[in-house]
């Protein structure tokens, strides 16, 4: 009773003792309220921990997804560089092939025009 009076803010100096039945009833009520309070606190703590674990799991999933995306971006960057190198090399190769074809055509035309009357084994010198 003194504890209850102190919690409520009253002076607990002049409290007369309770009879045995009233004290048992008050003790049972206090014990029941304590059990309910402890159960509620436990539920709140468990819910808080569950929420924290769920938050940590989601954060870990996000981190893993972010790392996967970074890896994929890196892979795509390498593939892009390779494709750009192929694109830059392709016009050069095509231009070289075109020049070779034109050179062969020119050689063919020159060979037809400059058919020497002498044997082809003797090189002509220009003087």
Name the features.
single chain, 127 residues, mainly alpha, 2 helices, 0% strand
What does this structure look like?
The chain is mainly alpha-helical and 127 residues long. The chain contains two helices and no strands. The chain has helices spanning 2-8, 20-113. The chain is rod-shaped, with a radius of gyration of 49 Å. The model has no long low-confidence stretch (mean pLDDT 83).
pLDDT below 50 for ≥5 consecutive residues: which ranges? none
Q: In angstroms, what is the radius of gyration?
A: 49 Å
Which structural class do the helices and strands define?
mainly alpha
Tally of alpha and pi helices:
2
Task: Write the topology of this structure.
Layout lengths: L1 H7 L11 H94 L14
Summary?
By secondary structure, the protein is mostly helical.
């Amino acid at each position: 009773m003194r504890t209850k009076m102190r919690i409520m803010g009253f002076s607990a100096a002049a409290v007369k003792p309770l009879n045995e039945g009233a004290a048992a009833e008050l003790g049972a009520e206090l014990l029941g309220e304590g059990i309910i309070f402890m159960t509620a606190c436990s539920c709140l703590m468990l819910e808080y921990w569950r929420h924290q674990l769920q938050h940590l799991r989601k954060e870990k999933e996000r981190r893993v997804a972010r790392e996967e995306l970074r890896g994929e971006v890196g892979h795509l960057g390498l593939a892009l560089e390779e494709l750009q190198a192929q694109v830059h090399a392709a016009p050069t190769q095509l231009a070289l092939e075109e020049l070779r074809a034109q050179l062969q055509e020119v050689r063919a035309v020159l060979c037809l025009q400059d058919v020497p009357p002498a044997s082809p084994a003797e090189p002509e010198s220009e003087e």
